[in-house]
Design goal:
Helix 1 (5-13) packs parallel to helix 3 (99-115) and helix 2 (62-79) packs parallel to helix 6 (200-208). The chain is 35% helix and 25% strand. It is α+β, with helices and mostly antiparallel strands. The protein has 2 domains: 5-142, 60s Ribosomal Protein L30, Chain: A (2-Layer Sandwich); 157-319, Phosphoribosyl-aminoimidazole Synthetase, Chain A, domain 2, CATH 3.90.650. The N and C termini lie far apart (45 Å). A 7-stranded mixed sheet has the order 8-10-7-11-9-12-13. Strands 3-6-4-5 form a 4-stranded mixed sheet. Strands 1-2 form a two-stranded antiparallel sheet. It has 10 helices and 13 strands. The structure holds adenosine-5'-diphosphate (ADP), thiamine diphosphate (TPP) and magnesium ion (MG) (3 copies). One magnesium ion binds at residues 218-219, 325. InterPro entries: PurM-like_C_dom, PurM-like_C_sf, PurM-like_N, PurM-like_N_sf, ThiL-like. Residues 153-309 form the PurM-like C-terminal domain. Pathway: Cofactor biosynthesis; thiamine diphosphate biosynthesis; thiamine diphosphate from thiamine phosphate: step 1/1.
């Protein structure tokens, strides 16, 4: 069944939550009308996923594309310590795409929006002669000072939430399905690539307990650490032995004769949080995170200077450049 533009919008929006406590007017008008609480600041971020660059038929099912596009946007709100509330979804649709593909994509949007109690309050649909693309804008709010990339101070602890490298390892596995791998590891890595979990609660703990900086890991730990170092005007010294590389990524790396650390440095799309905190604030962060079963690991220290330096177990040092995922490599 072919739908016209308005039928398509009606069909898609009927599949997702469109109302919420702060939604005065949702989809249907020229703009959505939203309210915020007194003392809050609005957070807003947008990102685009495009066929070929962010997904291929063999790496992502339609559901995963919708889920992950929204998850990546919500992750930016998490990195600011905020609460995600509303989402807008713009689609560039190739003319030969089947309606069921878009319905499944929207089921993925619905899944992640429902989990975080977010409403889809608008969007856009256009036809494209190029690949499918999905642009997601997320709005959130916070009543605390937002977590910036620029607040790291010499003496602070550098930390990361959760375990990393698993999305990059998952992509490696999905692109090369003949790679030797334990089937259980394969299933975990696939899940970590296709359905990352934005760290909203972790971000709120970090802002509540006064972390000095934060960023979410989209391009890779190397890239994100360099962003914090440069925005804060400091050097970050990282002990590689402390980096919590996901065990399934370690196993895959070992089986391929690759350094599993490379998945963490350069793989990207983990959507965990990396940041800094004074030793006092870090102790409070650890206590509160532990009480909520959230893993937070110290991986290094902030020093005077610039750039990111890795210290390997044998004591050697190396500069880590920001060579994570880059859409326009120089
Ligand atoms: N076309 C653009 N116009 C204006 N600002 C942009 C544009 N593209 C990216 N930015 C801004 O540049 C900053 C860095 O972008 P990006 O590296 O994509 O951040 P993130 O990894 O958190 O998505 C963000 O604040 C983003 O809003
Ligand atoms: C087919 C395919 N190739 C490569 C990748 C890896 N990849 C694509 S984009 C990206 C980084 C994150 O996306 P980006 O658009 O840079 O998001 P942002 O940093 O703006 O949040 C990575 C690691 C992928 N997911 N799928
Ligand atoms: Mg971006
Ligand atoms: Mg980000
Ligand atoms: Mg990026």
């Amino acid at each position: 069944m072919k739908l016209d533009e308005f039928g398509l919008i009606r069909n898609l929006t009927s599949r997702v939550p469109t109302t919420g406590r702060h939604v005065v007017v949702g989809p249907t008008d020229d703009a959505a009308v939203l309210s915020i609480e007194p003392g809050e600041q609005v957070l807003v971020s947008t990102d685009t996923m495009v066929g070929g660059a962010h997904f291929l038929p063999e790496t992502m099912a339609p559901f995963d594309i919708g889920y992950k596009a929204v998850a990546a946007s919500i992750s930016d709100i998490a990195a600011m310590g905020g609460e995600p509330r509303q989402v807008l979804v713009a689609l560039g649709i190739p003319s030969d795409l089947e309606p069921v593909f878009l319905e499944a994509l929207y089921d993925g949007v619905c899944d992640i929006c429902s989990y975080f109690d977010c409403a889809v309050v608008g969007g856009d649909v256009v036809r494209t002669d190029g690949p499918l693309f999905v642009n997601t804008t997320v709005l959130g709010a916070t009543s605390r000072p937002p977590l910036l990339r620029s607040g790291a101070k010499p003496g602070d602890v550098v930390f990361v939430t959760g375990q990393i490298g698993s999305s990059g390892a998952g992509l490696d596995f999905l692109l090369h399905p003949k790679l030797l791998i334990d089937p259980a590891d394969g299933a975990v890595l696939k899940e970590r690539h296709q359905r990352p979990k934005p760290q909203v609660t972790a971000g709120q703990i970090l802002s509540l307990e006064g972390a000095s900086s934060c960023d979410d890991i989209s391009d890779g730990l190397a890239s994100e650490l360099n962003e914090i170092a440069s925005a804060s005007g400091v050097r970050l010294r990282i002990e590689t032995a402390r980096i919590p590389v996901h065990v399934a990524a370690r196993n895959l790396g070992r089986l391929q004769g690759k350094d599993p650390l490379d998945y963490a440095w350069y793989g990207g799309e983990d959507y965990q949080l990396v940041g800094t905190a004074s030793p006092f604030a870090f102790a409070r962060i650890l206590a509160r995170a532990e009480s909520m079963q959230i893993q937070v690991t110290q991986i290094g220290r902030v020093m005077q200077g610039d750039g990111v330096v890795a210290e390997f177990p044998d004591g050697t040092l190396d500069v880590i450049t920001a060579k994570g995922y880059n859409h326009f490599p120089g």
